Amino acid sequence: MIEMMYREALRRALDEEMQRDPLVFLMGETIAERGGSYKVTEGLWQKYGPGRVIDTPIAEASFTGMAVGAALVGCRPVIEILFIDFAMLAMDQIVNQAAKYDFISGGQGTVPMVLRTQGGAGNGLAAQHSQSLEALFYHIPGLRVVMPSTPQDAYGLLKAAIRDDHPVVFIEHKLLYMTQGPVAEEEVVIPLGRADIKRSGTDVTLVTYSHMTLKCLEAATALESEGISVEVVDLRTLSPLDRNTLLDSARKTGRVLIVHEAVKRGGIGGDIAAMIMEEAYDDLDGPVLRIAGRNTPIPYNLNIEKACIPSVADIVEGVLRMV
Amino acid sequence: MATKIIMPQGGQDITEGLVVRWLKKEGEALRRGEVICEVETEKAVFEVEAPDDGVLLKIIAPAGTKVPVFAVIAIVGDPGEEIDPALLLPPVAPEDRAVDVAAIRRGMAARVGASGRARRLASEKGVDLSEVAGSGPQGRITERDVLIHVEKRKFAVEALRGRAEPFSRRRRAIARRMGESKQTIPHFYVTVTADVTAALELRERLRRETGASVSITAMILKAVALALKAFPAVNCRLQADQIVYLDDVNIGLAVTLDEGVMVPVLSRVDRLGLEDIARRSKEVAALARSGKLAGVEPACFTLSNLGMLGVDSFTAIINPPEAGILAVGGVARRPVVKNDSELCIRSLMSMTLSVDHRVVDGALAAKFITRIQHHLENPHTL
Amino acid sequence: MGTPPAAAGPAGGSPRIPEQILRGMYRNIYATRQFELRCIEFYRQGLIRGYLHPYLGEEAVAAGACAALRSTDYIVSTHRGHGHCISKGADLRLMMAEILGRDTGYCRGRGGSMHISDKKVNNLGANGIVGGGIPIGTGAGMGIKVRQTDQVVAVFFSDGASNNGVFAESLNLAGTYRLPVIYLLENNHYAVSTPIECATGCCDLAGRGPAYGVPGICVDGNDALAVYQETAAAVGRARGGEGPTLIEAKTYRHGGHHVNDPGLYMDPGILADWKARDPLVLMRRVMADDAQAAVIEAQVDAELEAAVEFAKNSPEPAVEEFLANIKDC
After folding, report:
1. Catalytic-residue membership of B187
2. Do residues A231 and A254 lie in contact, with contact meaning Cβ atoms separated by under 8 Å?
């Protein structure tokens, strides 16, 4: 195992896939010579040249559309939208075009593109640069949505996403880029659609993903000293959802708490809670509960920003109320 | 005025920086805007400028050291200026401290369910919501509940001859702390009487010979410091379910105010001389009486001296999360039996030690307090 | 590659521009310069977090353009918006408080540098989305037409935004409906770190106007007087019902894209050439009177100090109050 930063793990995945398949190419703003605002593509332009690592103008709608087109004629584009908030400019191309082509053409063409982006609050970047918008993409049939929480997961899942023939929205988190973690030395491809039990437990199941996984693990450690055994299930892929792992865990503990940074109203926690209660009602010891972001845009001031998203203390309190 | 130069923020997610080189030496003069050092973060090299005309008083982080963002790397100020130790304190750590589950539980219990209207009314009328019975769903407190409570409260006072007053913020804080301390800490007490005749003679001699003013409190502080150094197992605090032993011997000094008590902390008392201790304790006491708290280092022990108010002895309540507190009474001239049969008159002072029996056992407490007694009875060891 | 225009004409002001306007422009350029430098200092000290996109080097564009507007005219700004905000008549105290995230700021600490707006002077706001303000400004123009007032809108945006789809659509709409909008393209030759030549096949950005029936003018963005004159002409046309104008103001950043970007990709020689035409220095030369300039500077310095004092002493938004007032809608 090598110790690596999340962003380095992503770069390694891009490098290996570009090496393996000459039809993989990258597009995005300042990803070429500059190596990307979050340094994920650092060195790749130098290695693969401007033909395969392409700087775009600030034109999200059109370069996302370009990815759809390039994918249709046999390439595997990996585009970067610097902030998920900017993906809103490209919603037609993502939702109406990429997600639907395979279906509306009767299977005549697939769109094997990856849209890499990042979201999340915590740095005082305010309302238009701090959102967690995965629910919008989760809601669209035809899109796969992946949100890795560790460097190893980021590495293995990005490789899988690039090899996948569906359009994949690959959502990173701005606070995760510089986190460190062990990554396998040998090549690893982590299949999409498989959740990961990051910590085993027997009393409560925490269902979570992305940056909240780290907070859930911290809460679980603190609760252990109180004699409460917490299982942390990291979804990794949101769509398609690994229902089996979720239901197994729900049946094991009987108590489920869903934790996500995204706004509670309309967040995927509601869908997952309903699914668990529909399928495993008789195995539950109480209703599935949710800890999620407050129903508000993210403010600029750091203190009130912090109050808008779940903290470790919020998660601990959530569990304490259930046991 | 001395100001600190900090490692600048170089990027949203940058947590530390490297001091590359200093362009100025300690003692060198500076002009406002002049570049005094170069620092490097992951993204780039930054020049750090002098905020004002003055002198580079002290370099805290030499070239080649990595420090966290916002940590102090130097102090600038007027030539010859004394540097306030408060400037050298590290920045307050972010709130990613160890998770305190007990505190979260307490918070949950304290946050009684109440409607927004109930809260507003309670705030207006100075009502403590934890005293109000809730009639809403799941015991939730409604506005009506608060109104009923206010009426009941008025009636309760009218039945007596007297005056009702809501808790002031300071009073409430003291009430909470003292209540918590007494309810959660198993206090254990040990009392000795110290013969301070020699100590008083030393004090008098110092005053005559050097004009120095050394109070009994200063001598006790030094004796306590030496005892803490000799018994480091007492110099500890309870934090997040761990016993934290501090390297520094910092001691809190209880200062009585018009309302309540303030406990400024004197730092590294074991390294200070008697005159310094005397001077510093006078300073913090004066500041405390004018409402300013000076000295906020973590301490494991507090000294409380009520001797000047005429008490013989008393037992003090530990200041959580400290391990102990020493309660000192007044000095009185009393007859004492010496050498088994002689009667003489000595100056005696009663001291009672309270310790947290979860971390300090009886035998240790006894050894600790008798060491203090030893130092006071042999003042040349101070 | 972004070479600055030839040296400006002789100093001494222009007889056609009133003294008051010249003084106002100098005041705004100087104030913006000092304000930005102060913000950078505060950012390094951790008083400002998140993003900061200094307007250093571009001050004349906002100052010149806003000098041609009435208080009742609207502006729409960008993420690099402090210059527009100040030149439109912002209260420096409320600006500084907002950027320091205080409850007393323009947006009560909710918006910060990138979202700062000032209703009193009809500044519809800065925008964190590149190009996000262009359709909004166009819409303000439509609103003016519907309400039948004689106001106009100045929409500021960058060369980067001019490559975004909404720019083309907005220009087309404004041309179609003959909207009273002045599109102020601040061409600072970089979109973040991407030079303009690498983001478009044709660097004549003013030339994009006529394709949509909108006159396109190119002007030296570091010459506040020139910006003022062209904007005034465009405002006159808009108020007269003749529709929109696209003004491309050529200028250059004195630093990177944001405060943490050292701008290593910028050619030092070209940067030096542009710095030699510092808009502050150019405007200073136009001021006939040294004493007058000094008075203006002293006033701004005092105003800025008061603003800093006010901001630093202002409370941050209270967390309980914020949570209790979440609209949840």
Report:
1. no
2. no
